[in-house]
Design brief:
Number of helices: 19
Oligomer: single chain
Helix content: 25-40%
Distance between the termini: 10 Å
Shape: globular
Strand content: 15-25%
Radius of gyration: 29 Å
Largest sheet: 9 strands, mixed
Length: about 650
């Protein structure tokens, strides 16, 4: 059986192997650290590329900064860390396909690289803007690869953490570039061939970010820059009020991945040939008005994404009308409450600039059928997302703060992103079953956006949220991760309640399937394995008896399983069940795709039972066999019943 490495791949060695496939004569060996190592003979490689090599002081176009070389090394260096499951903080752990991961996103991305290589369809991130007042991740770029690997096994303050980056810092841009470069470099590996990444940024680093993305993705992969309104009011010591930032978009390799969305064509007239089919709901118009006879049944509050709307946009006037103090023609909604609910769930409602509008479509209308229930006639027109779609207040930080406050979570975020911004980006992508990732996930807005998108259009999107558990000055939620997890729980509960209420009187496009609002919480930690597992040669005979078990004492079988899943590229959302055979515990992943047994005293009968199931992978501890005869018979048993099973040991 082959021994598991229990650390991430060394991408430098992978790159050397790629060179070997093309130029085998350029690969040699040398002595390094007292051992023979494979190396690249760059003199020979130069000869192979003699017509295209730029060296020394030769002029070239390049984007560089102090520490760039080390940041590239950091992105490629392996680590021996793991992700430990936390059932008690998760929601529907056994069934959900969503992940919430606590830890430094650089380490987490490295752990996920092999498991999710080319599997993520969309990434949205909102990294630190480097304003001089926020924080950036401080990475140890000056370490050698060996030191990095060794330190990554320790649980102490040597890991990555957040530090202030004031403008007075002489390395102001350099520190930010060194932070963001390796993370985006790894993110590209995770994206599928039809994948896309959206990055929020402002003027402080927009220029540098675009250069980084051009280098990593290629200039041909640039899609667009979307300006976004951040706030409509405020004070500033500057000459002009800066009220916008940007969302930068790059595609991995394809740009035919964006779909149209419903739009309103205001050119339709009441007198055309479609007036009877289209009905009175044809044009985009405010949902409220004061030009028809007042009806109390049409005067009701509407809550959407944490914001409450009233006819006429005046709460005090609404209260007076409900008391009976209204005019004969006064503010109310044009649509009844049940018609509004139907229109909302079928894409006929627009929330814009603090008001609610109805949409209109050619040859399309909402009508009541013979059963008295609403239905849609024909299909709407669509258009592609525009680069100026996000300049309305609907996508501002002001709205985002209200959305977060609606959950009554005691927390203050200066620059949260609104749910609708990320939801619009998500729904512009053609795949409704896409895997979505946010590795600067903050207050959990992206997770809520995924859940709401699925609720609206029946998609089966999954999310992976990654966030450093930075401390908050908050007694209820000591870390930002605890706050975000609570926000996702509350959002999921609210969405299910809304869905249940809507389904009671919906027909046509109603989505009756269960919505996945759960998430598995995983936490970055040092490896489950003791140092002896990685450096057995460093253990003396005197220490051998103390290190007979190479697994740390505080680690559970499920901890071990998740580190195994990472190495074997098994999705961390895979279904897991526990069984017993002859008193021995088995962990079965994805219906026998992977079977692990970490108990001791495993007998031939247990091995035979497992082999008969024909798993793709079987993993056990090297000290699990009850005696030497089990080890002797092990290969024979698997050759007899399941010769194709890949066997691994810890």
């Amino acid at each position: 059986m082959e021994k598991l490495k229990m650390l991430t791949p060394n991408l430098v060695m992978d790159n050397i192997e790629k060179i070997k496939q093309i130029f085998p004569d350029c690969i040699t060996e040398h002595i390094g650290g007292g051992q023979t190592e494979v190396a690249v003979d760059f003199d020979k490689l130069r000869q192979q590329l003699s017509g295209s090599v730029i060296e020394g002081a030769d002029e070239r176009y390049q984007f560089t900064w102090p520490g760039k070389r080390q940041s590239i090394i950091t992105a490629n260096a392996p680590i021996s860390k793991t992700l430990r499951p936390c059932r008690e903080e998760s929601v529907d752990f056994d069934n959900t396909e969503n992940l919430y991961i606590e830890g430094d996103n650089l380490d987490v991305l490295k752990l996920l690289r092999e498991d999710y290589l080319g599997k993520v369809k969309m990434i949205y991130i909102d990294p630190p803007y480097n304003t001089g007042n926020d924080f950036v991740y401080e990475d140890k770029f000056a370490k050698s690869t060996d030191d990095y690997i060794e330190n990554s096994c320790q649980v102490d303050d040597d890991g990555n953490h957040l530090v202030a980056n004031p403008e007075s810092n002489g390395r102001f841009h350099t520190d930010w570039l060194n932070m963001i470069y390796p993370r985006i470099k790894i993110a590209k590996d995770l994206l599928s061939s039809d994948g896309v990444i959206f990055i929020s940024i402002d003027d402080n680093e927009a220029e540098n970010l675009k250069k980084i993305c051009n280098e990593i993705f290629g200039e041909q992969s640039f899609v667009a820059v979307f300006p976004r309104l951040t706030t409509k009011s405020g004070k500033t010591p500057l000459t002009y009020m800066i009220s916008h930032d940007y969302v930068l978009c790059y595609a991995k390799s394809r740009t035919d991945i964006f779909i149209g969305k419903d739009f309103v064509d205001d050119s339709y007239k009441y007198s055309d040939e479609f007036v009877e089919t289209r009905g009175k709901y044809n044009l985009k118009q405010p949902l409220d008005c004061n030009s028809i006879s007042y009806s109390s049944s049409l005067d009701y509050p509407i809550e959407h994404n944490g914001v409450t709307y009233y006819p006429g946009s005046d709460y005090k006037a609404y209260i007076e009308r409900k008391k009976g103090n209204h005019l004969q023609k006064d503010y109310a909604w044009r649509w009844s409450k049940d018609l509004y609910e139907f229109g909302l769930n079928n894409g006929w409602i627009v929330f814009q600039n603090g008001r609610i509008y109805t949409k209109g479509y050619l040859k399309a209308a909402i009508e009541k059928g013979p059963d008295g229930k609403y239905c849609i006639i024909d299909r709407p027109k669509t258009r592609k997302m525009s680069t100026i779609d996000f300049i309305s207040n609907d996508f501002s930080n002001d709205i985002a703060k209200k959305q977060l406050a609606a959950y009554k979570i005691n927390a203050k975020f200066d620059y949260p992103k609104p749910v609708d911004l990320i939801k619009e980006l998500i729904q512009s992508y053609y795949d409704k079953d896409a895997l979505f990732m946010d590795f600067f996930s903050g207050s959990g807005t992206s997770a809520e956006a995924v859940l709401r998108a699925n609720s609206e259009d029946g998609g089966k999107r999954k999310f992976i949220m990654i966030q450093l558990p930075e401390s908050l000055d908050n007694q209820d939620y000591p870390t930002i991760c605890q706050l975000a997890e609570e926000r996702i729980r509350l959002a999921g509960k609210k969405i299910l309640e809304e869905q249940k209420a809507n389904q009671s009187d919906r027909t046509g496009n109603a989505q009756s399937k269960k919505l996945d609002v759960g998430f598995r919480v995983l936490k970055l930690d040092s490896s489950n394995m003791k140092d002896v597992y990685y450096k057995p040669s460093d253990v003396t005979n005197d220490l051998f008896a103390q290190t007979e078990d190479n697994i740390k004492a505080d680690r559970t079988d499920e901890d071990l399983l998740f580190q195994v899943m990472l190495e074997l590229a098994v999705p961390l959302s895979a279904k897991i069940r526990s069984e017993e055979i002859s008193g021995r515990k088995l962990l079965v992943v994805d219906d026998n795709y992977l079977i692990a047994c970490f108990d001791k005293d495993i007998t031939d009968d247990v091995v035979t039972d497992i082999a008969k199931r024909k798993p793709q992978y079987f993993v056990m501890r090297d000290s699990s066999a009850v005696d030497d005869s089990v080890i002797t018979n092990f290969e024979t048993i698997f050759q007899t019943y399941s010769k194709d099973t890949v066997r691994k040991i810890l």
